[in-house]
Write a structure and sequence with these properties.
The chain is an alpha/beta fold. The chain is about 50% helix and about 10% strand. The chain has an eight-stranded mixed sheet. About 0% of the residues have low confidence.
């Protein structure tokens, strides 16, 4: 686990002490300065340890399969038996993957220290062949497979593991130096309990945890400026602001379970963030079954909230968006061309309209649309909702808004910029209002819909909640649909929403 240098702590301390303790927590300028110091350590988002471990697993299993079939063709070389050997090889590879996963040989710590895992890897590989020989004996398969093939595969397989794990060490060192395999975390709760947790985690030399600092709901002598070498960055309200500017992966509560009300009050503010939230159990006398805990190093924690999308889910959704989005761009290119010509013939001005909107974790993204309004009436912030018969909308604009053709250029955001998804909560404009009130003022927990990337279409749109949001009920129902989508996401759900979107567009009574 990495902490900050003395120079960083000095800068943070000077920033904190520049104002009185009472004002520091609420001073967003100072918090922004601290966030800039934190961002200097890592400019890019980290890679998922689960995905890296999965990549190593896939490479190893592919190499083992290729090696096995290579030995078969060199020694046996009989096309009639190829399917039999391929099936046996697949069984061996699957058994190896399962056993190595069972002994945690694909964890980040294991990949960093393959020498410590060597006995486990060799033992698991040997166990695979003991199982194969057991099956050979039980089902009287003697003579079906070459003993030379089996022995050669066993010893050459050990060589494959040695090579892949050596390569993994080099990869992990490079990613570690670049700060790309760390979980970025903050601690909530100072005092003795927080200090004990930090000291226990600091004992783990190969942890992938980078702790940015401590946030505390108390602002008195019980919450020191520095705790176990980590700076006190403010209160929980400050944490929400901090998480908007510094990409966090993990929030760890070090408060005892007995502080239930304090924890609940803070969770009501923090659940809208796209982070994992854990409750440390190192000081609790109450003990649950081991399966009830996950672990940060050797410290047991209780999972409170998980990111809606993480690890392979992020990868699968990204690949799906890019591939399907690119196909859609090509397939819809005639509509793009006809729409562009119609806009140019209908009114003066550019074809496209770019508007800043809220994206993932409240980040501002520039969204592309076909221009549907007269140039002199364009509303960059959407401070005034478009209503039926709105004179600001052009003739072509009424048609493309009614059919949602004006949204098609957002495929550029999906395919080339990656700041939108095909499916997700719609990105709302900065000044959008319902009943003359900002959306976040109308709906409690509104920003929780920003825990995933926004989309071109979504569960709210196919359920009829698209277009004008002139009443509080309309935006409330839209947000409810968005949160349902986030909590129940799957790639099948995305495919279903995309499939029924054309049908939903025929019911466009709210779109003007």
């Amino acid at each position: 686990m990495s902490a900050f240098s003395a120079e960083d702590l000095r800068l943070i301390s000077e920033t904190n002490t520049a104002a009185s303790p009472a004002s520091t927590a609420g001073d967003k300028t100072q918090l922004a300065e601290i966030a800039n110091i934190m961002r200097a350590h890592s400019n890019r988002g980290p890679y998922s340890g689960v995905v890296i471990a999965g990549f190593v697993r896939i490479v190893e299993m592919m190499l083992l399969f290729t090696l096995s079939m290579g030995i078969y063709y060199i020694y046996v070389d009989s096309n009639e038996e190829a399917l039999r050997y391929a099936s046996a090889t697949a069984l061996i590879v699957l058994l190896a993957a399962s056993l190595l996963q069972g002994v945690r040989s694909y964890s980040i710590m294991a990949l960093r220290n393959p020498l410590k895992q060597g006995i486990r890897i060799a033992g698991s590989w040997a166990s695979v062949f003991l199982i194969v020989m057991g099956l050979d004996f039980l089902f009287k398969l003697d003579g079906l497979f070459s003993r030379v093939w089996l022995v050669s595969l066993f010893f050459s397989g050990l060589v494959v593991f040695a090579i892949t794990r050596a390569a993994a060490v080099l990869l992990m060192k490079r990613l570690t130096r670049a700060g790309l395999i760390e979980r970025r975390a903050v601690i909530v709760g100072g005092g003795a309990s927080g200090e004990q947790f930090l000291r226990e985690v600091l004992r783990e030399p190969d942890s992938d945890l980078r702790i940015y600092g401590v946030f505390d709901d108390r602002e008195d002598e019980r919450s020191p400026d520095v705790l176990a070498g980590f700076p006190n960055l403010g209160n929980v309200d400050d944490l929400v602001e901090f998480a908007r500017s510094v990409r966090l992966d993990l929030i760890i509560f070090t408060l005892p379970i007995s502080a239930e009300q304090r924890i609940l009050q803070m969770l009501r503010k923090l659940w809208v963030l796209p982070v994992d939230i854990r409750l440390a159990s190192h000081t609790n006398q109450l003990r649950f079954r081991p399966r009830a805990y996950s672990y940060i190093g050797g410290v047991p924690v209780i999972d409170v909230f998980d990111k809606p999308l993480a690890d392979w889910g992020v990868v699968v959704k990204m690949i799906f968006d890019r591939i399907v989005g690119a196909i859609a761009l090509v397939g819809l290119s005639p509509i793009f061309l006809f729409t562009a010509v119609a806009i140019k013939l209908d009114s003066k001005g550019p074809i496209f309209f770019k508007q800043r909107r809220y994206g993932f974790n409240n980040e501002l993204v520039e969204v592309y649309k076909f221009r549907s309004m007269y140039v002199d009436t364009l509303d960059q912030g959407a401070s005034k909702l478009v209503t039926k018969g709105d004179p600001r909308v052009t003739r072509v604009g009424r048609f493309i808004r009614k059919t949602s053709i004006d949204e098609l250029p957002q495929l550029i955001n999906v395919v080339f910029k990656g700041n939108l998804s095909l499916v997700g909560p719609r990105p709302h404009a900065l000044q959008a209002k319902a009943d003359n009130r900002q959306y976040e003022e109308v709906v409690d927990g509104y920003f929780a819909r920003h825990r995933v990337r926004p989309g071109i279409t979504g569960w709210a749109q196919v359920n009829g909640w698209r277009g004008e949001t002139d009443t509080q009920e309309k935006i409330q129902r839209r947000v409810e649909c968005d949160l349902y989508y986030i909590e129940n996401w799957s790639i099948i759900f995305d495919i279903y929403i995309l499939a029924i979107t054309p049908l939903a567009l025929t019911k466009s009574e709210n779109a003007y």
